[in-house]
Design goal:
351 residues, 14 helices, alpha/beta
């Protein structure tokens, strides 16, 4: 049986092909009665929109790329799910690429992988520099996630410095006086770890607490084994502490395991808080307090910004009509975060 076409829907509904097209594209000037009639015909005939043809007519492929450092880091996996959901609302397909936090891979992604098969890119860079982003002529429309490297590209993030400040202040408010930052970095910079370390230090300074020489606990990755090894090293060195601010939940979950193995009670002896609110932290023992970024909002804003840039790049009318909305100015969007307090800082029955 031949696949039904738009003219078949028009004949079945008793309307013009243009009217069917208007209904499919959700144009406002179609009457409710006609819209209902056309949608009923679409359903009865089993008509499906040819998205590939629609995109190609606009000079697009209908494919966007999401580039993240590591797919098996739960935060990025959860974020990818939200991005895919938002892209589907725009009839876009998402190609997911793992960069490995490697500069060459991130540069290749930024250049559209040397091809024209993606309309735009949502990129979470870890290795790129500001210089890499300055000359972007000929690159596909791009939205950056995480800390802002350089003005000149749309950008979506949470306020990591503020979030770390709030998490550290919460620990201090519990009476903890020796808070270590697992994954903290002693270096200037615009990265996420640097921003979270600044927030941590600001909260300590506000409380009149001076961080000791071992306050920043270095890690070689942001995975559970690294968190476990880092805390084991701190315990072996005899460093005294009563709270841990872990710069992501993976580090925190690894830290919880090491503390358990060494007979350290959480939160009785040491309170622990992480970042990202990944699913595993809701099932750990104890459950993990964390900074929860609004991942759904990050995805929604990123896809919306990218969709607008794609339209500007392929539709001259959109560029002319969109200057007031920012066709030539970049957008720096900060989305919400919140503290989720669970057993690792509050204890049972203290939520």
């Amino acid at each position: 049986m031949a696949r039904p076409r738009i003219k078949d829907v028009a004949r079945h509904a008793g309307v013009s092909e243009k009217t069917v097209s208007n209904v499919i594209n959700d144009y406002a000037h179609v009457s409710d009665r006609t819209r209902t009639l056309v949608r009923a015909s679409i359903e009865q005939l089993g008509y499906r929109v040819n998205l590939a043809g629609r995109h190609l007519r606009k000079g697009r492929t209908g494919i966007i790329a999401l580039v993240v450092p590591e797919l098996d880091i739960p935060y990025f996996a959860e974020l990818a799910r939200h991005v895919i959901r938002e892209a589907e609302k725009c009839s876009l397909t998402v190609l997911i690429h793992q960069s490995g936090a490697d500069r060459a891979h991130e540069l290749a992604a930024l250049a559209g992988f040397g091809s024209t098969f993606v309309d735009g890119i949502i990129l979470s860079p870890l290795a790129l520099t500001a210089d890499d982003l300055r000359d972007r002529d000929g690159f596909p429309p791009t939205v950056l996630l995480g800390e802002l490297l350089e003005e000149g590209a749309d950008h979506v993030a949470i306020d990591n410095e503020r979030a770390a400040y709030e998490a550290t202040r919460h620990l201090i408010g519990l009476g903890r006086r020796t808070v270590l930052a697992v994954g903290g970095v002693d270096a200037p910079g615009l990265g996420t770890a640097e921003a979270r370390t600044r927030g941590y230090r600001a909260a300590l300074a506000e409380a009149g607490l001076a961080p000791g020489p071992a306050a920043l606990v270095p890690v070689d990755s942001f995975r559970m084994p690294a968190g476990a090894l880092a805390v084991a090293r701190v315990l072996r060195d005899g460093t005294r502490f009563d709270a841990l601010l872990c710069l992501n939940d993976q580090l925190a979950l690894g830290a919880l395991r090491t503390l358990y193995e060494h007979g350290v009670r959480v939160p009785g002896d040491v309170a622990v808080i992480g970042f990202d609110d990944v699913e595993g932290g809701r099932f750990s023992v104890p459950t993990l307090s964390t900074v929860a970024p609004d991942k759904a909002a990050v995805a929604k804003v990123a896809v919306q910004l990218l969709q607008r840039r794609i339209e500007e790049a392929t539709d001259p009318d959109a560029t002319r009509n969109g200057t007031e909305a920012g066709a030539h100015s970049t957008q720096d969007r900060i989305v919400a975060h919140r503290l989720v307090l669970r057993e690792s800082t509050q204890g049972r029955g203290e939520h």
